[in-house]
Amino acid sequence: xxxxxxxxxxLCVASCVLYCVNRWLLKPHIASTFLHGYFNDTLLIPAxxxxxxxFQRKLRLRQSDNxxxxxxxxxxxxxxxxxFEWIGPHxxxxxxxxxxxxxxxxxxxxxxxxxxxxxxxxxIA
Length: 125
What we know:
Elements: H1 10-26, H2 33-37, H3 39-42, H4 44-58, H5 70-91, H6 98-115, H7 117-124
Helix pairs in contact: 1-4, 5-6
């Protein structure tokens, strides 16, 4: 299996670029509920998880350099959903939105599919 490239992973880089494009170029000029409310949420797992996993690897909390598996993605999805959508609104002036969790999940599912695409080719062949 190929070594996971963490922050230099193409999906991570693309997600970070898309976040910036949406945040500073699209949202100010386009009135779209999806772009304003959910697009960046779909980028949470593919953009942030590689950085977190790299940090965990440096702390020796992560044992391999394999692509994130579904348990790592699901674990962080649950933690971030609780933190951002339940705890956050209780301590900051923000609103929790269950649709944000759906967006996190969708982005996580797409990221897992991308990061594990080579396994799908082997399984199909």
